[in-house]
Design brief:
Number of helices: 12
Largest sheet: none
Oligomer: single chain
Number of strands: 0
Strand content: under 5%
Low-confidence stretches: none
Mean pLDDT: 94
Radius of gyration: 19 Å
Length: 210
Amino acid sequence: MNTLTETLAQINKASKFGDLKKLAKEIKKNHTLALKLWETGQYYPRLLAVLILDRKLVDQVFMDKIATDLKNQRVDEWNQILDWLYANQLKKSKKLIAMVEKWRTSESPVLRKLFWTHQYRIRWTGKTGHDNTDEIIGVIEETIMSERRLIQETMVMTAGWIGVYNLAYRDRLIILGEDTELFKDVEVPPGCTSWYLPDFIRTEAEKRGL
């Protein structure tokens, strides 16, 4: 049995994400340990926690606590924690996705971030025909400039992938990017696509011959 002390001894500042994922595979599902790791408040233990928790025990009360606890986490850290939580737990449960889809107007930026993470993740693979696309674009147009930067990023990615794969919306979303100018002057690493909507949509669509 893995104890908290034994597990923490295997995590240090030199650990890499791959080390945590390997350790999670060894531990497998252990919700009790996950809760103890989470309560340390430390970044790497919390990353490991979201990998080994039991998603069947996740509900709105649980997520409200996650959202509250992350207020004291550095923004870049809670962004990564949420990414792993969504990818490894939330998206794998229809019940949890139904819960995520209710968070668009949540007072918690953490839960709103997860809502928009879900919206862009279901679109970046090229799947179209989502019945809420018109509504989602309207919400982005109306609210993106008043959102926190970290959530703006995810809203832009949602709009970007819609524009890439849905020709009917492409011009509208390019104009949105030109009007807002969000991320226009943000430098990206070599080989990466700009997050500025007009550039992102045109570049990614061209890559795919769309």
